[in-house]
């Protein structure tokens, strides 16, 4: 069987070269470059190596055996984004691997950025080159763990691995599959982005439903701060009050009318603002 990139092979050392050693399976030869050798290299013994292609497309070897191989999955960190190609990830060897733009979201703003993590395996493309391949939903289910009701209302972190119109699937640090409905986020996470939220439900199948929105008191504080910042940018007043339309409030503050009224109520109770004839005013210190 011919040697193949993305796999592990045990090969004999046949000769030394100025830049490394050549290895063989008896038919094909590959170069083990000095930079890809580990301290336990022994030219007198067969060497177990991982095969990949160098920058010229030539099959080459490394003694660093990555977790991610053809048919084996693992988490890979994004290290470079190329708009016309896709994203490059590191699998722990000297050459980064491309995840093609064909496997990435159609909306470029949802592409991973440097530091994001993707759960992938390796595949050989039509041109014979090695590529990263995103794990399927079935693979993610196979590696996942079922959550229990004890996770309810707990803070949780995870990486987005599947983006849908109705929401986002994540794999949590604990190994749970999580789902974030579009109503439970302020903006859609990128593929591979690490997010932090809280568990708002645990389904019978062990999937956790997650909200990226803060708890009620946290949201009120955040919304109140946004309202005050807007008022301060307008000299301490704004043409919005508790009878403003939901559409106007959503357009200006990107929150619901109910959330807007809760934040206003907090600020009125704290004697920070007052309302008159469709306007809201910020009180000056000492003003009654």
What does this structure look like?
The chain folds into 4 domains: 8-62, Beta Barrel (OB fold (Dihydrolipoamide Acetyltransferase, E2P)), CATH 2.40.50.140; 74-135, Beta Barrel (OB fold (Dihydrolipoamide Acetyltransferase, E2P)); 144-211, Nucleic acid-binding proteins (OB fold (Dihydrolipoamide Acetyltransferase, E2P), Beta Barrel), CATH 2.40.50.140; 216-282, Winged helix-like DNA-binding domain superfamily/Winged helix DNA-binding domain (Arc Repressor Mutant, subunit A, Orthogonal Bundle), CATH 1.10.10. The chain has a 5-stranded mixed barrel. Strands 8-7-6-9-10 form a 5-stranded antiparallel beta sheet, with no helix packed on it. A 5-stranded mixed barrel has the order 11-12-13-15-14. It has 4 helices and 18 strands. With 288 residues, it is of the alpha+beta class. The mean pLDDT is 92. Residues 6-63 form the Conserved virulence factor B first S1 domain. Belongs to the CvfB family. It holds the Pfam family CvfB_1st. Residues 225-280 form the Conserved virulence factor B-like winged helix domain.
What is the topology?
Elements lengths: L7 E10 L2 E5 L4 E5 L13 E7 L5 E4 L11 E9 L3 E5 L6 E4 L16 E8 L5 E5 L2 H7 L11 E10 L2 E6 L4 E5 L12 E9 L5 E4 L4 H18 L3 E2 L7 H8 L3 H13 L3 E4 L2 E4 L6
Parallel strand pairs: 3-5, 13-15
Antiparallel strand pairs: 1-2, 1-4, 2-3, 4-5, 6-7, 6-9, 7-8, 9-10, 11-12, 11-14, 12-13, 14-15, 16-18, 17-18
Helix pairs in contact: 2-4
Q: How do the strands of the widest beta sheet line up side by side?
A: 1-2-3-5-4
Domain unit count:
4
Shape field: elongated
Order of helices and strands: EEEEEEEEEEHEEEEEHEHHEE
What is the tally of helical segments? 4
Largest sheet: 5 strands, mixed, barrel
Q: Going by CATH, what is the homologous superfamily of the largest domain?
A: Nucleic acid-binding proteins
- The name of the CATH architecture of the largest domain is Beta Barrel
Measured by DSSP, the beta-strand proportion falls in: 35-45%
Helix content: 10-25%
The overall pLDDT, averaged over residues, is: 92
């Amino acid at each position: 069987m011919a040697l193949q990139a993305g796999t592990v092979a045990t090969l004999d050392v046949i000769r030394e070269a100025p830049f490394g050693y050549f290895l063989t399976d008896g038919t094909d030869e590959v170069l083990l470059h000095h930079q890809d050798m580990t301290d336990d290299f022994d030219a007198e013994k067969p060497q177990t190596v991982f095969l990949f292609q160098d920058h010229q497309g030539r099959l080459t070897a490394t003694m660093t055996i990555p977790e991610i191989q053809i048919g084996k999955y693992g988490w890979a960190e994004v290290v470079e984004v190329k708009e016309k190609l896709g994203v490059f990830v590191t699998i722990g060897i000297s050459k980064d691997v491309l995840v093609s733009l064909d496997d990435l979201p159609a909306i470029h703003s949802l592409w991973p950025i440097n530091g994001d993590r993707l759960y992938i395996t390796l595949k050989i493309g039509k041109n014979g080159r090695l590529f990263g391949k995103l794990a399927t939903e079935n693979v993610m289910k196979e590696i996942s763990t079922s959550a229990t009701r004890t996770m309810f209302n707990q803070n949780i972190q995870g990486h987005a691995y599947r983006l849908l119109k109705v929401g986002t699937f994540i794999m949590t640090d604990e190994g749970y599959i999580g789902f974030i409905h579009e109503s439970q986020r302020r903006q859609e996470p990128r593929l591979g982005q690490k997010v932090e939220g809280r568990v708002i439900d645990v389904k019978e199948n062990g999937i956790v439903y997650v909200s990226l929105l803060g708890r009620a008191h946290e949201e009120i504080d955040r919304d109140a701060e946004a309202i005050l910042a807007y008022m301060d940018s307008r000299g301490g007043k704004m043409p919005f009050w508790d009878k403003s339309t939901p559409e106007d409030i959503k357009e200006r503050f990107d929150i619901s009318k109910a959330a807007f009224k809760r934040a206003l109520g907090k600020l009125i109770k704290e004697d920070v603002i007052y309302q008159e004839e469709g306007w809201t005013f910020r009180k000056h210190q000492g003003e009654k």
